[in-house]
Design goal:
Blueprint lengths: L2 H16 L4 H8 L14 E4 L7 E2 L10 E8 L3 E9 L4 E10 L2 E8 L6 E9 L2 E9 L2
Helix pairs in contact: 1-2
Amino acid sequence: MCLNEISRQVYSTILQEHLNSSETDTQDILFREFATLPVFKIPTSVKTNSIPSRFELRQNYPNPFNPYTSIEYAIPEANHVKIEVYTTLGKRVKKLVDDFHYPGNYKATFDGRYLASGSYIYTMRAGSYKATRKMILMK
């Protein structure tokens, strides 16, 4: 990997993770898609050591929130997990989780400081499991 490629990954990370630019806008700016680096991510954490019996995406807490909220979820088997936040019009505003997870209970923190007040949708995909929940940002 060349230095130019790494530089563009850093730019992509800053645009998406720090400035909340969409993937499409970032691709337009950098002329193609570049992977983001885990520089600004708020880490997810394992909540307990018990292995859940089923996949579960829980309602965020607090809800309504300002500007942070926690999203808890359970993974009963090792799987790639993706949690994304969307506007009610379907525009993705944040890729919150996109990692391989071992079985367990997890929590991710969502930062809504740079978003407008309103309703947002978050989805979780893991294997064949898919769930959606609604949350409200009130400033």
